[in-house]
Design brief:
By secondary structure, the chain is of the alpha/beta class. 44% of the residues lie in helices and 10% in strands. It has an eight-stranded parallel sheet with strand order 2-1-8-7-6-5-4-3. Helix 7 links the parallel strand 7 and strand 8. Helix 1 crosses helix 2, helix 5 packs parallel to helix 6 and helix 9 runs antiparallel to helix 11. The chain starts with 8 loop residues before the first strand and ends with a helix. 45% of the residues are buried.
Length: 320
């Protein structure tokens, strides 16, 4: 791979708006994609966990990526989730996305069945040997078979088409071990963190960027954190990291994932519709609290006005 095309920066795992019938709201999705690009994200990451890829059919997943590719028109690179239920269908997805001109795909390790490291290696080796498109490994051990450091190192040495890993474990020391193991022989190999709380510390430890759920809600702040960290403005970067963590915790714990993120995107002016996962009335997001928290955070950084009644001296105090 050409080092100039290395995957780096913030790849936003976009959500998908639904219409009143529970179908993909294409016009709103296109508007949302334009907004994310205008706010400065480096790339887009459809069909991720935040994008609820398991709640779509294979045909819908391909349609989502096709819509985004058409709307993006090369303005930013796309890292498309290509995981299917088995290796043959996953390779077919890789072929389809390659035909769309997508920059790379992200593939989660086998899920449902918990596999041994040897089986995880064999799965990705089969993909790496047969894919026409660059592959990003996706490690999310809370939902799928983990990809351990020896497996990552071996795959990086044997498969030229495997060019990156996205790690959503939140395990900072383990990701540092990945970087130590792979980078000496594959300096162009990319490391992306999918855990919002780990973005700043992992950028400082050698990671190249992130696929952070908060960037679909406050892309301005995630981009700001990336820029501040990479330019060594660490005091200001630390403050933004803390604020992003507060928002992230509010969204992830206020409802079943990713309903809090969907509610927050709606507060930024998009009609997201009802998600496909049925929820009880007791599980519904407290929109009022989430709205006030989001508005206070954005006003602190100059993106909007304070809500009526003002904000507490710091978002953490307000939430506490």
């Amino acid at each position: 791979m050409n080092p100039q095309s290395k995957l780096s920066g913030i790849f936003t795992p976009n959500l998908v708006p639904f219409d009143s019938h529970g179908e993909i709201n294409e016009p709103e999705l296109r508007r949302y994609i334009d907004w994310l690009i205008e706010k400065g994200v480096h790339g887009l990451y459809p069909n991720g966990s935040t994008g609820e890829f398991t709640r779509f059919t294979p045909e819908e997943r391909r349609r989502i990526v096709a819509i985004i590719a058409d709307q993006t028109r090369g303005r930013v690179p796309i890292l498309a989730g290509a995981a299917e239920a088995n290796v043959r269908e996953t390779i077919k997805a890789c072929e389809y996305y390659h035909g769309l001109g997508i920059r790379a795909v992200a593939i989660v390790a086998p899920f449902y069945y918990k596999l041994s490291p040897a089986s995880v290696y064999a799965y990705f080796k089969e993909i790496g040997d047969n894919t026409p498109i660059d592959v990003t490994l996706y490690n999310i051990p809370m939902f799928a078979s983990p990809i351990d450091v020896p497996t990552i190192q071996r795959l990086s040495e044997e498969c030229e088409k495997i060019v990156a890993i996205k790690d959503s474990s939140g395990d900072i020391p383990n990701m540092i071990r990945m970087i130590q193991a792979v980078r000496p022989n594959r300096p162009e190999f990319s490391f992306l963190t999918g855990w919002d709380a780990a973005l700043m510390p992992l950028l400082l430890s050698g990671a190249d960027g992130g696929t952070n759920a908060s960037s679909g809600v406050v892309p301005e702040l995630t981009r700001k954190l990336y820029d501040l960290t990479m330019s060594a403005q660490l005091d200001e970067a630390r403050r933004v990291q803390y604020d992003l963590l507060t928002l992230f915790d509010t969204m992830i714990y206020s409802a079943e994932f990713p309903e809090g993120f969907r509610a927050a995107v709606e507060l930024r002016g998009f009609q997201m519709g009802q998600g496909r996962q049925p929820i009880t009335s007791e599980q519904k997001t407290d929109i009022s609290t989430l709205s006030r928290t989001l508005q206070c955070m954005l006003s602190e950084h100059g993106f909007t006005n304070e809500p009526i009644g003002g904000c507490a001296t710091g978002i953490t105090e307000e939430l506490g």
